[in-house]
């Protein structure tokens, strides 16, 4: 079926969303402009607004896509490993590889997209905080599972340990932005796992 004369060629929405995701990942929410987004996505502003609503709506879709793709390793590791120790170690080992992968911007979008921000980005920060809090809660649930199974002492500080591993992941993300290699980040994972109770 031929295209109607004069009608704009439809763009690949999924491919455009991936390009937008990488712009937000590379520059952060506030520093990413509509002009930068449309240039990266290969579309004009009216197409962006028609497809995604606005920059805020586009960012939320980008975060959702990140969670399903680049960031999905964390959810998989926490769901698939038989023990809390194995799950958390897998998260750290895979983060080392993922965060330093030269095929995309370094670090984690959820951790880095909004660090210092103005009042207009408060809701963005709140949205990302929900994801980070959920990840820490998932760490705690897996650690608590090891306590309940008798694999680690009953008096283990579950919340403290979960916070420690969440902070480790966040630090690894920052280190990757400073140029840390996958091997260097993997060493962080090795040291961090020494904190896990015997």
TrEMBL record:
Keywords: DNA-binding, Transcription, Transcription regulation. It comes from the Bacteria. Residues 10-70 form the HTH tetR-type domain. Residues 33-52 bind DNA. This is TetR/AcrR family transcriptional regulator. PANTHER family: HTH-TYPE TRANSCRIPTIONAL REGULATOR YJDC (PTHR47506:SF1), TRANSCRIPTIONAL REGULATORY PROTEIN (PTHR47506).
